[in-house]
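dumping this here before i forget
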Amino acid sequence: MPIEILTGALALVLYFVLAPRFNNGLYRRLLFFPARFPRDWEGIPCLEGIDGEDVFFTGENNQRLNGWYFEKPDSDYVILFNHGNSGNLTIRHHMSRLMIKAGYSVFVYDYQGFGRSTGLPTVDGICSDGLAAYDYLVKQRGIEPQRIILYGESLGAAVATYLSTLRQCSGLVLQSGFASLRRVATEHFPLLRIYPAGLFPLPPLDSLSTLEKSDVPLLLIHGKLDRVIPVRHSHDMHRAAGGIKRFLLLPGTAHGDIWTTAEDEYIEELSGFPQHFRERQVKANAAEQWVSHSDLTCSSKVCYKSSRSCEEC
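structure:
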């Protein structure tokens, strides 16, 4: 066999062996930075007067997943908090406190391989963990799907967006998220540009493309000083998103410091987010009334919606 053919064949094999889609071991070290649960951690925190409940639930492949549930008695909505790619839930109590302060119950959990959750993290694994966390809220705690807000921080924003395509929710909040995994990966590691989107892990975590087809009320939150995931990612997602959408830009905030740099602005925006669910419901109800009206013989002969005669409609 000519040396050129052999060299080309080896290069092709190496290309695929090193592709993000097939080399979980290599890219796990680049994407995930989990921390085990601290041995000296004492109890579950009490946030804004609410005692946290330590819970365990089962993942798709029988992993034992750990979460904390904070039930605010007068809350209409529950935030399912999908955190970022490092640490564990113990360093999310600051953000959980702000969510409770904004009026929500909160369920924050650890992906497989984080904290006390068993297993090793992969892209498809953390997405299945998100589904398991959602199903725990609905099936074991009896939370109605329309009360759930999917919240994602950093990498977790892509998980939350993915969940919104498979599960019902009232709203979607993306904090410091990226437009797509491939885009942010190639910004940090330019050599990865040799790989097309099809050779990145599945599911593709292309939030921008998902939001283009979504009508779920959306709140984007991003710090202007973010150097980990530049704010342009959220600008692009905001432009692409259909339906009701809002964008909270925080001028003095970087990637993970909202609780120290913009607490008041964050709480004000997050607490007001439910009004957009109601706006969506009003529009849906109006559409249903219009359909019902069009099927009836109207005695007034005037359409309540357009002020035109029924015959003209």
